[in-house]
Amino acid sequence: MTSTFDRVATIIAETCDIPRDTITPESHAIDDLGIDSLDFLDIAFAIDKAFGIKLPLEKWTQEVNDGKATTEQYFVLSNLAARIDELVAAKGA
Amino acid sequence: MNLEYFHLIDRIADLRLEQRSITVEARVPEKSTIFEGHFPGYPLMPGVLLIETMAQTSGWLLIALMQFQRMPFLAAVKEAKMRSFVTPGETLSVEASVIHEGSGYTMTEAKIKSGGKLACNATLTFRHVPFPNPDLRGHMEAMAKQIGFPEQMITHD
């Protein structure tokens, strides 16, 4: 079974034209992969569709802006995959 | 339409919140300074203004869906196709529908028809935020009344 990280990495590679082999679980979407906020909307759209969820981007952005969270918590891909798994689990609960 | 002031929507003809769709009417003016340059002797509605018309149509739909609490701003245009010329005096029917509601952003599909024929279409992405200031909100409320936005949908804090 394809892991959440692999699915997300494939989405990012296809959406942003980034070589798949350069995307690792440790990659930071913004700092390492250079994805800007507008491109991230396309990624969020593809993730929402693929996983049947709604990434809470506004909440995450607010938490980062308020200093209650770091960008690493949401935008390092292993962490992003974990957040997606949580949202999928919450939806199924 | 008043092209110089970017007033591109004349009237909301149909607004269906459950279907998340809208249809508006817009009449291209016979005369405008825009046509003096685009193009001399061969006036055509610029493609960018057709895209803006689709964006404004989508925008009114989103404002309605967000109960007049947030303002959408155009963020991306995809697959925009200008399929036929639009000329002064034409009456356009503009349709838009939501294809995805994300967190802080929404995507729509929009199309413009003239004489029943598809003139252009695009997929649009909007970011939306609370109205940034009372002036903008007041302006949008005034515009809403002009174009027949349902008054009961204009909520106040």
TrEMBL record, chain A:
The superkingdom listed in its UniProt entry is: Bacteria
Known SUPFAM superfamilies for this protein?
ACP-like (SSF47336)
Q: Name one GO cellular component term.
A: cytosol
Q: In which pathway does it act?
A: Glycolipid biosynthesis; KDO(2)-lipid A biosynthesis
Q: Which biological process annotations from GO are given for this protein? A: lipid A biosynthetic process
**Known InterPro entries for this protein?**
ACP (IPR003231), ACP-like_sf (IPR036736), PP-bd_ACP (IPR009081), Ppantetheine_attach_site (IPR006162)
A Pfam family that the UniProt record links to this protein:
PP-binding
- Supply one GO molecular-function term: acyl binding
Keywords annotated in UniProt: Fatty acid biosynthesis, Fatty acid metabolism, Lipid biosynthesis, Lipid metabolism, Phosphopantetheine, Phosphoprotein
- What residues does the Carrier domain cover? 2-88
Which NCBIfam families would you find in this protein's record?
Answer: PRK06508.1
Name by which UniProt lists this protein: Acyl carrier protein AcpXL
Provenance organism: Rhodopseudomonas palustris
| Source taxonomy | Bacteria, Pseudomonadati, Pseudomonadota, Alphaproteobacteria, Hyphomicrobiales
Automatic annotation (TrEMBL), chain B:
Q: Which UniProt keywords apply?
A: Lyase
InterPro entries from the UniProt entry: FabA_FabZ, HotDog_dom_sf
MF terms (GO), sorted A to Z? lyase activity
What residues form the membrane-spanning segments?
none
Note whether Nucleotidyltransferase occurs among the keywords: no
Domain of life according to the entry: Bacteria
Q: Name one Pfam family in it.
A: FabA
Q: Establish whether keyword Lyase is in the entry.
A: yes
PANTHER family noted in UniProt: 3-HYDROXYACYL-[ACYL-CARRIER-PROTEIN] DEHYDRATASE (PTHR30272:SF1)
UniProt-recorded name of the protein: 3-hydroxyacyl-[acyl-carrier-protein] dehydratase
**Origin species:** Rhodopseudomonas pseudopalustris
High-level lineage: Bacteria, Pseudomonadati, Pseudomonadota, Alphaproteobacteria, Hyphomicrobiales
